[in-house]
Every structure is written in structure tokens, then in C-alpha cells.
Task: structure prediction
Amino acid sequence: MRGAPLPGYLAPTPHTPTPDLAEEVELLRATDPATVNGGQCGLDELATTVTAYWEVALASHWRRLRDLLEVTCCTGPGTSPPEARSGSSRISIPRSAGPMTP
Result:
């Protein structure tokens, strides 16, 4: 069973190839409050929650994740390189690795 699609304001099209969190949250905050449950208050709470989640779950891993995504996306589906490097860390990716699924 598939879930409902994300509303456009939760995943806006970035204005740059590598936006930072502040830019993404500003795009979120620019959403028409009438389209969000709770209006402006709901939008403010959502932006605060997204920022807090980022700090707790992703911030410390983002450089490695971004590097891996860039390598995988730039080489095309099914052509992942055998490894991606980020600073002194190393992420191994088997050549046979297919697309990641949730």
C-alpha cells in the first residue's frame, strides 16, 4: 500500500543544485499559510520541526550522505561506482547495488 503523496510545500523544487537547510526552510516558510493545516501557526511549527529533525537525525551525517547521493545520481541508475569517499571516511558500494528502496 502506498501512502499519500507529499504536499508540494514539503518538498519544494530547490533554486540551486545544492541548497542548504536555511534555504529549504525559507522556501517552506514562504508557503501560503492557507494551504497548511493550522495556518501560519501550523507552518511555523512545521518549519521548526523540520529544522529540529535535521539537527538530530541528519546534520552530522549530511556530508557523507550528500557525497554518496551525488556520486550515485551523477553516474546514472545501475552504474554506481564501487566506492564513494568523504574526507577520511569511506563508503563502500558494491557494483551490483541497485537503487535503494525504503
